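EI: anyone free to look at a 340-residue chain?
SC: sure, send it
EI:
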Amino acid sequence: MTTTWRMRFELSDSPGALARVTIRLAAADCNVLALHVIPVPGGVLDEIVVRAGEGVLPADLVEAVRSEGGKCVGITSADVRDLVDEPTAVLRAAKTALSDPSRTAEALRQVLAADSVTYGEAAEGQVQVGDMAVRRGWARFTQVELARAQALLDLVEAPAPAVRGMLSDDGVALVLRPGAPSDEDAVAGLHTRCSMRTMFNRYHSGMRTVPRRWLHRLLNPPRGTTILAQCADQVVALGQLIHTGTPDCAEVSLLVEDAWQRRGVGTALLAALASDARAAGYAELVAWCLPSETALVRAAARAGLDVTTRREDGLLRVSIAPRGRALKASIATVAAEKTR
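SC: here you go
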């Protein structure tokens, strides 16, 4: 159960107001671990990271602020990463994005303490930063934070972060990119080149081809994203990330053409999906495989992602932590290893 919380609040501009709030928290056996002051038009926001005492609820923390005339702007669960001072956090995020531009969205999420960062136009409840849509439900973004985020993007100047390159195990260059409606024929061709066994492992049914009406949903899932692996003018693999309806959890799936299996394509595709999942705020990826099918488990292990499995309803439920260990086989590393 979470006992560490991150709070933002506005206090009246009077001497000792913040001190009185911390005294109330101390009386409730709460320990303030970090404090930041954020400039906003007309004043400042105070942000604290507090470890709550036994039995203290988030509502009790909010009441402690309000009892001293404060207005609680937002509260969310926190972890040890929130104890890093702001300049250090920004520098670490910049290093992440500079060393691997495909992780720019993940770095931006760290800088903004956002719930999710995805590529595309901002919808209702989101804010546009560069070519990315950013969402944070627990507190509104301040202009200082948005300026800091834009400065990060200006520093990185990553070329089309949604398009990534890789080398297969035998040195063939491929591109990983988002799927688009214009890819329907290419994705249909991918399915026709897959064997019955590969199709059965992916869809758990004995179909030989996919119905034409499925192609649109494969390329434009209503609650997720699709990444294609392309070599020359052919799409040779497809990966999807679909929100399950459970908070912080998404379903992941891969389809790799037979001729490209066991050549590192699935590993790179899964690493790319895990990177997007981290930026979108997912804590778990779930896949459903036949008990005899171990390709996804091997790909996750090779990508440096922690995996657990269990039998459920006659299938193998594969749970993948998108953060895992350091991505030993991230796309950049896979490419580097093949050129040694």
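EI: The chain has a mean pLDDT of 86.
SC: 👍
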